Amino acid sequence: MAEPVAPNATSRLSDEQISDAYIYLLGRLLITRQQQVDFDTEGLVWNQLVHRKPGQVDWPNPNLDVAYSEAWVALDQKSFLLVTVPAITGRYYVVEFLDGWGETVANINERVYPDHPNGLFAVCLAGSQVEIPTGAQRVDVPGATTRVLLRVELGADWDEAIALQHGFKFEIHGDPQPPEIPRTVMFDIAALPGVEAFDSAEAALGEKDSGTGMEDLQADVRAIANAIKDPAERARIDAVVRQKAQADFAAAAPRIGRGTIRNGWARPACCGHWGDDWMTRTTVNYGGIWANVFEEVLYYRGAIDSTGAALEADGSYTLTFPADDLPSKYAKYFWSVIAVDRLHRRVLPNPLNRFLLNKESKLSYGADGSLKLYFSPEKPADAPDGNWLPTGGKPWSLTFRFYGPRGGVADGSYFPPPLERQ
C-alpha cells in the first residue's frame, strides 16, 4: 500500500524555493546524464583510460585545442589508481579529476607538482592506508567515484601531441567494486525535464555534495520528491518548474550563473571550485561540462555585440585586439576562440571543418600589430583566410579560452573587446 501523502506537503515551499531546488538538482542531473551516455553509448569502462582522437568527444563546448583522454574511476579503502605521466616540456597538459557534482578535486601536472612533474602518481581515496610504489606521488581524492579528463595541447605538431597523449597510462591496484550508475532521468539539453527531474532525486542525491551550505536545498529537493506522489501537487510543481524554474535558469545562463558581463562577454564568478554557488555550477555543467579551475583556464562566453544586441545567426562580426593588448598577453600557454550553437553547444558544421581560431591558425596581423578576427557565414573580402571562423546556419555564441591565465584575465579585470556587427 502506498504511504499517504499530505495534499499540501509542499505548501510551505514558495515558487522561488521550488525554482531554486530544481536548478540545484539540475546541476547534478547534468552529470548523471553524461555518465549514462559515457557508459551506455560511449563505451567507457570503470578504471580504463580511453584516448580520444582530436575532436572525438561528445559533450557541450568541447576544447578542440587539446587531445582528450577520459575515464571514470572507482576506488575503495584497499585500492589505488596508478597513473603514469610521460615527460612533457613546452606543452600544456593536465589530468583533471572531478566529483559527481562537477567539482575539480585534483589536478596532476607540473604546476601542482613542480618537484614531480612526471612519472608515477598514486591516486587514493582520502584516508586510505594503501602501500603505493616507491617514488610514486600520492594524490588523494575525497570520494570513491571520479571523472577524469586528460588534456594534452595539440599545438603545431599533432603527431607529437598524440604520441604524448598515449604515453599516459592508468593501472588499477586492488579490486574495487564498481558502483551502480545512477539511473536518473535522461533528456536532451535543449529540452530540460519538468517535474520528472524530482523522480530522480534520491538517486541523484546519493552522491555527497562537495559544495558548502547545500543542506536546505537538499531538504527542499527531498520534500518535493515526496510531495509529487500526490497528483495535484505533481501538476502544480510541474507548472512551477516549466513556467518559473526553467525561465529563471534561462535568465541566469547569459551571465554564466552569477558572473559578470562586460563588452558583451560573460565571465563566471567561479569555476571548478564552487563553494556555495550552485547557480553558477549548474550553468557551467549545462554549457561546458567538466570545466577546470581558474588557475588552469578562464572561459568567457560571447553572445552579445557592441550595441548589446544578441548575435544574429547569419550576422557578420569582427573582434579587434590592439597591438599592445593581444590575447597572447593573457595566456601563459595558449588561447582560442570557438563558435558553438546556442542549443546544444556543439561546433558549427562548415565546408572547411574549421571550428576555432588560435595561435596555430596562421593569423595575419595589421600593419600596426593589431589582430582582427572575423566571424561570418562567408569570408569577408578584407579578411585574411587564417583570421576567419565560419559561423551561421543556427543561433551561435563564442567561447574564448585562456589557458594559464595571467594579468587581467587572472585577476578578473580583463574582458575581451566587444564584437562589432559589420
Account of the protein in words:
By secondary structure, the protein is of the alpha+beta class. Among the domains are: 47-173, Sandwich (Immunoglobulin-like), CATH 2.60.40; 296-421, Domain of unknown function DUF1214, C-terminal domain (Jelly Rolls, Sandwich), CATH 2.60.120.600. It is 21% helix and 25% strand. It is built from seven helices and 19 strands. The strands form four sheets. A six-stranded antiparallel sheet has the order 10-11-12-18-14-15. Strand 10 (260-262) and strand 11 (265-267) form a beta hairpin. Helix 1 crosses helix 4, helix 1 crosses helix 5 and helix 1 (15-40) packs parallel to helix 6. The longest helix has 26 residues, at 15-40. It is globular and about 65 Å long. The chain starts with 14 loop residues before the first helix and ends with a strand. Mean pLDDT is 94; it is low at 1-7.
